[in-house]
Specification:
By secondary structure, this protein is mostly helical. It has ten helices and no strands.
């Protein structure tokens, strides 16, 4: 049996029936990335971003894939919008940017890296045993 061919045919059928459904496009892109069809995955992620301008999660998904593939042409135009969004919504860093990924990305500035690192450091600090009790004892 040719499972990859069957999977591809099934996905193409679903895509032809619901070509603009974000959930379908997200699923398709995720599967394409998992089976190492990176060009298709990037193409679908670009389409989702184009059809949902200004929405964080589609941009985040495209940026994550682009970073993992070193597809800087896909990352670079989204970077200014992404970093501005993250600075005004730092909790979204958890969903989108990991510190190690950021340090390996040549497009993040030193200020971007400091912002990302400080956020993650402060977030992780609160998960350490005794941190909350110590802060409460100090009246923080």
């Amino acid at each position: 049996h040719d499972q990859p061919l069957l999977l591809s045919q099934t996905l193409n059928t679903v895509m032809s029936r619901a070509p603009k459904e974000v959930e379908v496009l997200e699923m398709f892109a995720g599967i394409m990335a998992r089976i190492r069809q990176y060009d298709k995955a990037l193409s679908v992620r670009r389409k989702v971003v184009a059809e949902n301008p200004g929405e964080f999660f589609p941009v985040c998904k495209l940026v994550q894939l682009a970073q993992s593939l070193a597809a800087w042409d896909d990352f670079e135009p989204l970077h200014p919008w992404l970093i501005a969004h993250l600075r005004s919504n730092p909790a979204d860093l958890k969903e989108c940017v990991q510190p190690l990924e950021a340090t390996m990305n040549p497009l993040y500035s030193e200020q971007d890296l400091q912002f990302i690192t400080r956020y993650w450091a402060s977030t992780l600090l609160w998960t350490l045993p005794g941190t909350q009790a110590a802060a409460n004892a100090l009246g923080a």
